Amino acid sequence: MRAKLGCRTADLLALTKAERAACDEALAKGAENAPTYAVISPKLKKVFDKTFECPKDDAWCEYRIGKAPYPGLFAPRKKKRDPSWDQD
């Protein structure tokens, strides 16, 4: 029964200290071969490293990454699409 259940049920099987140490050793060896995963996305890494480039004429993007002041009042306004709006 100890061979089948092993380290998963150490308390239930009342494993000795030596057996628990062997389980910890086996668990540590498994972690050495485990794949590593990126902690943050590549885009966020570029932002943190200050190598991220915003799209051209994107004042809000530059503001969010800290390369420009708040663009709220001074942001370029989009042109009206429909010329009939000006006719009254």
Structural commentary:
- The protein is mainly α and 88 residues long.
- Helices cover 42% and strands 0% of the residues.
- It has five helices and no strands.
- It is rod-shaped and about 80 Å long.
- The termini are far apart.
- The mean pLDDT is 76.
Tell me the series of helices and strands, N- to C-terminal. Answer: HHHHH
Q: Could you describe the largest sheet, including whether it forms a barrel?
A: none
The fraction of residues assigned to DSSP E strands is under 5%
Q: What are the low-pLDDT stretches, counting only 5+ consecutive residues below 50? A: none
Computed CA radius of gyration, to the nearest angstrom? 30 Å
Write the layout of secondary structure elements.
Layout (H helix, E strand, L loop, with lengths): L1 H4 L4 H4 L3 H16 L9 H7 L10 H6 L24
